[in-house]
Amino acid sequence: MLCLQDEWVVCRIFHKSTGLNKPTNPSRRRINSTVDDGLSGVMDPASSSGPRSSFTDAENVVKGTSGHSSSSYLNPLGAAVRPGLVQLNVEHRLSGSIVSGPSLDTWLSADMKPQVTPSAGDNLNLGAAIDLINRFSAMARVCLAEFSHVKPTHSSKNRFPYPAFLRIKRSPLSLPSFLLPGEKRSKLFGKATHEMDHRAEWVLVLALGVCILGRSVEGLGVNWGRMAAHKLPPKTVVKMLKDNGIQKVKLFEVDPSTMDALAGSEIEVMVAIPNSDLATMNSYQSAKNWVKKNVTNYNVEGGVKIKYVAVGNQPLHKSYNNTFDKVTFPALKNIQNALNEAGRGDSVKATIPLNSDVYYTPPDRPVPSAGRFRKDIRGLMTLILEFLSKNNAPFTINIYPFLSVYANKNFPFNYAFFDGATPVVDNSIKYTNVFDANFDTLVSAMKAAGHENLTIMVGEVGWPTDGDVNANIRNAYRFYDGFLPKLAANIGTPLRPGSMEVYLLSLLDEDAKSIAPGDFERHWGLFRYDGQPKFAIDLSGMKQEKLLVPAQNVEYLRPKWCMLNPNAKDLSKLGENIKYACLYADCTSLGYGSSCHGLEPSGNASYAFNMFFQVKNQDPQSCGFQGLGTITTQNISQGRCNFTIQIAAGFSVAAGLTRLVVVCLQFAIVVALLAAT
Fold first, then answer.
1. CATH architecture of the domain formed by 220-522
2. Given pLDDT bands bounded at 50, 70 and 90, which one contains residue 421?
3. H-type helices in 275-416, by residue range?
4. What is the pLDDT of residues 451-471, one digit of tens each?
5. What is the pLDDT of residue 543?
6. What is the rounded CA–CA span in Å between residue 65 and residue 161?
7. Where is this region: Disordered (predicted)?
8. Element at 236 (helix H, strand E)
9. Which residues touch 389 (CB under 8 Å, ≥6 apart)?
């Protein structure tokens, strides 16, 4: 079964002959079923115990590594791969046992045409293979052959879930053509000719079903920002939230299409007023109008479950040079009073997401118990605390352990995580991580202001995966692998034990965000720009190291890239053209320590040209660059540096539903053919 949560495809493999299961070659070696680094291994059919005819009775789960659904397993190190034979494992779950499935092979390539098969011993990047499969058909996922070899690519000590690589050793099968309307030729299923004493015919059957939803830590939400050149449709994102059991979302605006998609979802929503509108909200009538349009209008039976209104976004940050100091508190008062007047004040609370730079500890006593609010806003903070307390609204704080590392090269690196560090001792309390210390510094500052019991909510916390030497998959995994179990256990902090409400930063990467804070700012997402998960993360906090459920039915632009023309002779204008491309597209992955750092100069140019080309929806004129650019259909990704193919600008859920209808029709045809035989 390939489980895509509450809308998924079941892959069942029916065997049309009675004799099966005994390979003709008994010397085929068994692959160790338990790999010492934590990856789930696979077993060769020759060594699996018990009869195999139960494949017609039980579910088969397509897996990648470490128990992850291969339909969504993406390579955090980049998606470059040589086109060719793709082999995946089929796991069979009976009484907890894991055995390999039948051998079926598929040919896929970047342009969906059969290519030269890799020779024995060639490595295929699993993430890239899955990326190709996703592009081929989001619904017609492929149940394929067992891994013939699993090669761990990460340290057994860290058990970090980098994908394994596939080592091909079998010859390709002779498979008939299989096409979806509007898609190029591929080969998907047919007669098997592998090492079995009967030439067994296997048929891939697709069906729809219901699956148990993923779940997350109670009180856990995500930030959903939409500053991207190509946005996923809101309905697709809402389904992704539900598929992953995420029941709380924090927005940075009130977008009608987003609100319509959230209607009826039962997801708790924090809507937001941008900083640029705070001055307008100083008018009570304007605040009433805003509440009517953006809260009352949606917060109805069967509508959007609005719980909070974020009044600004870190409006008191030092970088704003006091720009919003005088308008923030009046806006907060007017919005909450307007909510009260509209009869929504008991269920919807106004709050101000603030950066942790609103408090500090003195240089001579840098411990949490010495926390105080900044002197320049201390009076303002007291007014805010009093008003929030009066209206039973939470204080919202954003905490970024990553920024502690980023801003101070002497910061103790391990202190940013949760797996043990030299503690900071504050009286009798030992702080082993900066999150707890930062949070309790706020608790102490609130206590000093006379409001130590006010509820605190964490509006943003997370770890970026690119754009800096410390912003990468490994560190992000390490951070969440410590933080989420801590939340699940309701440990809290030394001064605030118990559960806490937290919003992770963030759901998706945003390639159009300002990079004033740093290049990492566009890479906070748990998911890539296209809704594909970056790495294994268990939102329940149970450390199951499972992949998140990806966005479904994502449509991509054609497999075309823009690159530096290798025949270009005059390179004198190359620098200015790269600069121009990066002005309008995201080149942050080229920075020092980032995923594409270290490319040759020609690679840097090609990366910049392609990012601009994709932002412009692959318009041929956008690959000119004064004669320096040329379009190619060959994937020019290099190593861990992925040269992006953007999602289609016209991508819609309707397109995905059309695919689903096609798959169902194909299912009916297959059933009819089986019945006829």
1. Alpha-Beta Barrel (3.20)
2. confident
3. 284-291, 325-341, 378-390, 401-407
4. 999 999 999 999 999 999 999
5. 86
6. 8
7. 20-69
8. helix 234-243
9. 451, 454
